Amino acid sequence: MNTIEIKSGIFWVGSIDFQLRHFHGYTFDTPEGTTYNSYLLKDREITLVDGVWGPFTNQWLEKIKSLVNIGQIKNIIVNHIEPDHSGSLTEIIKLNPKVMIYGTAKCESGLAKMYGLRNLNFKIVKTGDEISIGEKTIKFLEAPMIHWPDSMFSYIPQDKLLLPNDGFGQHWATKQRFDDEVDLDKLVNQTKIYYAGILWPFSAIIKNKLAEIESLGWEIEMIAPSHGLIWRKNVDKIWNFYKKWSDQETEKKAVIVFETMWGATEIMAGKMAEGLAETGLKVKVMDVNKFSRVEIAKELFEAKAYMIGSSVHDNGVLPNMSALLYYIKGMRPAGRIGMAFGSYGWGPTGTGEIEKFMIEARIEKAMGSYNVQFTPNESEMEKCREIGKQFGKIIGKA
Length: 398
Known about the structure:
By secondary structure, the protein is of the alpha/beta class. 36% of the residues lie in helices and 24% in strands. The chain is built from 12 helices and 24 strands. The strands form 6 sheets. It has a 7-stranded mixed beta sheet with strand order 1-2-7-8-9-10-11. The longest helix is centred in the last third of the chain and has 20 residues, at 378-397. The mean pLDDT is 96.
């Protein structure tokens, strides 16, 4: 794909990865692929903002060369050193060893450790620092743990353009580059999936950072993240969504997530869902083997209440449920309620592991656990339905 001028003198020179299906190891499935967005500013001092993942280096360099000679690049702004944004930098530094690099102190030490990039022309920047590159100015705002310690945002006041790296992004590979060129509902959903799967644990930090930007009086007409689509028409909408998400606002909705060995736990989940539905609440039933972890995380992120069930395996839960619980614990959900259920053959020990997870994840236990040996009979299925109704009433009052 060719370069695209997103603002006067500012060009997208990134790469589209249609083939990517897994990101961050096992934690994030990417059925829509992703993009690695990099931006070139043509001004008196030609400046690059962020790079791309290493396998796309040659493609990235060709885009840059179509606009300028590599040796003409004066500055590189590194907002984040994760390899999907920095993997291409070693090559461009070889081609232009005099280039000046701007980043946080953690950025400088991280590039040295990750790539052996030492003795660079590196300028450490902090919140409030800025550089003039000609007609344009670039202001810097440290944003540690959104979502690495080195992270920062860059802002160009003349263009009212925010460059927040992983903030406001999505894993979505498209030939379109702007929010108004795709279905907005799908775009918001993809952005929420990204937030729930990666940024959820940092919600309090994000909330404070949004408030800090507002206090600085930065006018923002465009947000150009380093993954996915660029926001140019719906900036206020996605900004307000981020404020809502960072507040961890929830819906009066329940997610029933389960893993089953021979179908008994699935039957229990279905009956509990029937009871919940009778109370008029929204309910989502999710088998961990039929939904990706990020799909489940997105639903859990939205919901006030969780019902978590598993068959017993080696005195605990089944393996994929165990992996999900480990993942969600790292998301640090706040303000949620839950309960555990499950089926067993020898002993009802699986719900104990689920309740331990709830304590560690700070999910309030709203009801005691419910266990069924082997396949539930008619009275046990009715009990599951009644538990769903009781849980629904608790959610309604929460």
